[in-house]
Amino acid sequence: MIRLVGNSAQLLQRITGIGLLVYLFLHVRTIHKLSEGPRAFDEAVAVFRSPLFKLGEIALLAAVILHAFNGIRITIAGLGLAQGRQKQVFVWGVAGAGALLFVAGAAPMFWFGIVRAD
After folding, report:
1. Other Cβ atoms within 10 Å of 62 Cβ, number
2. How far are the Cα atoms of 65, 105, 118 from residue 95, in angstroms, in the given order?
3. What's the rounded Cα separation, in Å, for the pair 95 and 30?
4. Of 36, 73, 83, 90, which one has the greatest count of Cβ atoms within 10 A?
């Protein structure tokens, strides 16, 4: 399993990067609705209140965390630091710390956005 970490990390970085790019276009499209008036913007934002979209926001949080932590790992490797320990940095730094940060952010999003949604 540890042999696949390098390829998996590279694939994960590309997938999360593409996902964040898609989100960026969606975000810009929604903000553009402001130019069409408050009613058009309110209609666009109404879609974001659905439980399915709330799950998408949780997935966005995961993508941001993974992309950022893996980018930091790539930067550390590029600087020549942690030579010979890059796989451990990925497993403990990206996956471990990223999972803790994800749970801390996703739990309230799930609880207040889906379970207790008004």
Report:
1. 18
2. 10, 15, 33
3. 32
4. 90
Contacts of 87 (CB under 8 A, 6+ apart): 2, 5, 6
17/41 Cα distance (integer angstroms): 27
Q: Whose CA is closest to 69, among 96, 88, 94?
A: 94
Tokens 């949080």 belong to 61
pLDDT over threshold 60, residue 38: yes
Say which range, 7-11, 41-45, 65-69, has the weakest mean pLDDT.
7-11
Exposed / middle / buried, residue 79 (Cβ in 10 Å: 0-12, 13-18, 19+):
exposed
Helix (H, G, I), strand (E, B) or coil at 85: coil
Q: What's the token pair of residue 19?
A: 């996902």
